[in-house]
Each structure stands twice: as C-alpha cells, then as structure tokens.
C-alpha cells in the first residue's frame, strides 16, 4: 500500500524552472520503481522519467533532451522532478506513480499500480 501526493506545480514562463515533489507514504514503497508521467489536454498519458527509490538507476523520455531530472531523497520519503528550460509544450498535469512489480524503467503507465492526484504545470511563452 502506497500513497503519493504531488506538489510544486504552477505557472512558469518559457525557459524557467519548476521542481515537483512527490511525498510517499505506506509500506514497502522504498523497494518500488518510481515514475513521473504527464498528460496534456486531449492527449494520452506519457512517460517522463523513472528511477529506483535509491535513485541509482534512472531512465528518461528521449523527447526531454536532458531538461528534466528525477531524484529521490530517502530521508524525506520524497521523489522530485526538476524541470528546467521549460517549454509551452511541457504544459500538462504531472503525475507521480509507483510500481510494485515493474522491472523495466522504461515501462509505460499501464505498469504502475499507485498514482498521485496530479499537479498542474502551465508554461507560457
């Protein structure tokens, strides 16, 4: 059982930065794979990044071109998504997710069994 709560969303101008946080609670989440996904209006939910809880293994969407970074802070039970050089096309609801069973960090949203409520990110030009 894992509960995830995202925060840190909001508005930013193109070229700016935001850091999203995902506070995790429950049992066994430290052994899960953690991921970030986003969903723009009218589009399917897409993969952004994933990592092991320790953050020693990471995987990113090729489309992000290194602008986003996923990291964990075990002491705070928190997963972060640092978003730099934001573009208007980054506008979406961003979701934190956890998978109790996935073994491939590139797995899509169907392979995640726990989800946060989402946080809106809006990037203006």
Structure commentary:
The chain is mainly β and 125 residues long. The chain contains no helices and 11 strands. The protein has strands at 2-7, 10-13, 18-26, 33-39, 46-52, 58-60, 68-73, 78-83, 92-99, 114-115, 119-124. The strands form 2 sheets. Strands 2, 4, 5, 6, 9, 10 and 11 form a 7-stranded mixed sheet that branches. A 4-stranded antiparallel sheet has the order 1-3-8-7, with no helix packed on it. The protein is globular.
**C-alpha end-to-end distance:** 40 Å
Q: What order do the SSEs take from the amino end to the carboxyl end, as H and E?
A: EEEEEEEEEEE
Number of strands: 11
Low-confidence stretches: none
- Average pLDDT confidence is 94
Radius of gyration: 13 Å
Largest sheet: 7 strands, mixed
Question: How many separate helices?
Answer: 0
Percent range for β-strand residues: over 45%
